[in-house]
User: Which sequence fits this backbone?
């Protein structure tokens, strides 16, 4: 068996993101700084490398992909291209000399072409001082540079970096067995994506869809979301009448909170890319989440995402389900009206 090519691996792991970035490059719309937020195994490094290859490839395929064969592609894959600067931390921290190397590379113009690309993995391991010193280059890039900062956990990244990069979230790859089983179990396409974000077990997925619990929850969370986005105080009423009845036990309360995270995650994903409706966790409120992606600043969105992510630990800390949802609703309404 031959080894799967780097491009093929990326295609399998992140088909939408790959297509998105190849299109951006074709249309010459690539921004100069991105933060790739993806757990290990989601293909963040592979996508970064394929982007570098696409920028330099001498033989782009008819599908708009790098060929993987030409000398430029080969050198990039071998880590031996002077205009592709890659830093991977060795140990717990990105070392001072690695940062010095990055800074000196940032100030040099491209060696061979007019394009230069920086790939820094596990950027959360950079010290605050080192990260701040790199921001200058991110804000005032010299020549035609692209910085791809990679992390497995966006929550560990300095807000100053978050606010200066376009954040790209890599969804965990749903095991194909799960996707197939969900389809075979007759689960509607509109629910499959949501389910894949909530659970990795077919059994748990089936339990959630029993007696239309998931369908109702998806509708109700969507309606609460729409009311909150409209700045409508009736979002509080919806907490009482529509969200609370879903949480008949602690596990289901946790699942409702996870769904609240996912509906906001839909907004975040659309801020960076066009996401096909059937790839959203909440396709029925796609219009609203798309509008919010345009309307909210990244700071507002990160603040809201952080609030939603905190609800799980509040529940684990034995806070009351109703209290958690009401406080969250209030904070979101405040954040949106800024
Ligand atoms: Zn090539």
Assistant:
């Amino acid at each position: 068996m031959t080894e799967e090519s780097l491009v093929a691996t990326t295609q399998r792991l992140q088909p939408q993101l790959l297509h998105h970035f190849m299109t951006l490059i074709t249309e010459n719309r690539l921004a100069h700084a991105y933060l790739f937020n993806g757990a290990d195994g989601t293909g963040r490094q592979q996508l970064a490398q394929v982007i570098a290859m696409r920028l330099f490839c001498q033989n782009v395929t008819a599908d708009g992909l790098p060929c993987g064969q030409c000398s430029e592609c080969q050198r990039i894959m071998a880590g031996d291209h002077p205009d592709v600067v890659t830093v991977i931390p060795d140990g717990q921290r990105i070392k001072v000399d690695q940062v010095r190397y990055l800074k000196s590379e940032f100030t040099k113009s491209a060696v061979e072409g007019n394009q230069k690309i920086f790939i820094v993995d596990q950027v959360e391991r950079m010290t605050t001082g080192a990260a701040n010193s790199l921001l200058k280059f991110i804000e005032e890039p010299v020549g035609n540079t692209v910085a791809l900062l990679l992390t497995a956990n966006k929550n560990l990244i300095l807000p100053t970096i978050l606010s200066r990069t376009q954040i790209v979230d890599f969804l965990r790859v749903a095991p194909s067995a799960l996707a197939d089983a969900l389809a075979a179990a007759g689960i509607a396409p509109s629910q499959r994506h949501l389910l894949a974000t909530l659970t990795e077990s077919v059994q748990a997925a089936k339990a959630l869809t029993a007696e239309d619990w998931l369908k109702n929850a998806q509708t109700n969370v969507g309606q609460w979301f729409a009311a909150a986005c409209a700045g409508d105080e009736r979002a509080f009423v919806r907490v009482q009448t529509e969200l609370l009845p879903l949480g008949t036990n602690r596990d289901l309360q946790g699942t409702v909170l996870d769904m609240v995270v996912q509906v906001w995650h839909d907004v975040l994903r659309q801020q960076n890319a066009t996401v096909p409706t059937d790839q959203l966790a909440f396709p029925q409120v796609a219009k609203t989440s798309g509008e919010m992606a345009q309307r909210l600043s990244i700071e507002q969105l990160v603040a809201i995402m952080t609030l939603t992510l905190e609800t799980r630990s509040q529940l684990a800390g034995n806070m009351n389900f109703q209290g958690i949802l009401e406080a969250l609703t209030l904070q979101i309404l405040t954040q949106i009206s800024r």
In short: Residues 155 and 306 are 8 Å apart (CA to CA).
